[in-house]
């Protein structure tokens, strides 16, 4: 009877040992995957930071260009108004 109990205990221990080995293998695999995913996350984060910075530079350049364009447009409107007024004055002077 003692021998049978010992055999059962040994059998249970072996089963437990197989489960432990299986879980250790799974743990190792998951750690490797985590390492790869961490590296990939770092690469994506760096790329995202560069692209976000580039987008901000585009936004700045577009805003500056639009502002300069609006100033040019205002100046051209002012110049056109002055030119029309002076042309009118010259026409009046020529009619006299």
Radius of gyration: 41 Å
Characterize the main sheet: none
By DSSP, the count of extended strands is: 0
Poorly predicted segments? none
Q: Give helix % range.
A: over 70%
H/E element string? Answer: H
Structural class label: mainly alpha
**Termini, distance in Å?**
139 Å
- Give the overall average pLDDT: 95
Helix count, DSSP H or I runs of 4 or more residues: 1
Give the DSSP E fraction (strand runs of 2 or more residues).
under 5%
- Give the CA-based shape: rod-shaped
Question: What can you tell me about this protein's structure?
Answer:
- The chain has 96 residues and is mainly α.
- 98% of the residues lie in helices and 0% in strands.
- It has one helix at residues 2-95.
Task: Write a compact overview of the structure shown.
The protein has 96 residues and is mainly α. It is 98% helix and 0% strand.
Task: Provide the descriptors you would attach to this structure in a database record.
1 helix; 96 residues; rod-shaped; mainly alpha
Sequence-ordered SSE layout with sheet pairings:
Blueprint: H1 2-95
